[in-house]
Design a protein that fits this description.
The protein is an alpha+beta fold and 152 residues long. It contains 2 helices and 9 strands.
């Protein structure tokens, strides 16, 4: 009687080892990108600054007064007033403090933006378009000269 051997399907040891090596290389190259959250933090700060500037423009129009935006290397603060000088700090929406947005550690403006104010019509003063860039963010925030429209 002749016994026929059936073919066994599976992986060889060499194939398994090579697969493990390739997966290890891919993990070593791409894993740091998943754990680096600076990109997410810079994008979040960019969104906060953009939303704050849109809010400032809307408050200026709604309350028929000036709303000033003052910048430091890593923060923006909003104040209100009846003149372009502004002097009264705006209240924060989340607590009883002043309206100040501070960047997370390691995130800042690439160049400190020029302080400006929105007038009662929502136009920025001093007039002129302004571009605000934040380190690590791919899109700049643009404030249009005539309308005060804030966008990326």
């Amino acid at each position: 009687m002749i016994v026929q051997r059936t073919k066994m399907d599976g992986f060889t040891l060499v194939e398994l080892v090579m697969t493990m090596i390739i997966l290890g290389i891919i993990a070593a190259v791409f894993a740091p990108r998943f754990f680096d959250n600076n990109v997410f933090q810079s994008r979040g700060f960019t969104d906060q600054v953009q939303a704050s500037l849109r809010y400032a423009q809307k408050v200026a129009i709604a309350q028929h007064r000036f709303v000033c935006a003052a910048f430091t290397i890593n923060s923006i603060s909003l104040t209100t007033g009846t003149t372009a000088a502004c002097g009264t700090p705006m209240a924060s929406l989340s607590d009883t403090g002043n309206y100040v947005i501070t960047a997370p550690a390691g995130i800042n403006f690439t160049a400190v933006p020029t302080n400006f104010s929105f007038n009662a019509l929502g136009s920025p003063s001093p007039s002129g378009a302004q571009t605000i860039t934040i380190s690590g963010a791919s899109n700049a925030i643009i404030i249009e000269a005539e309308t005060g429209y804030v966008h990326q």
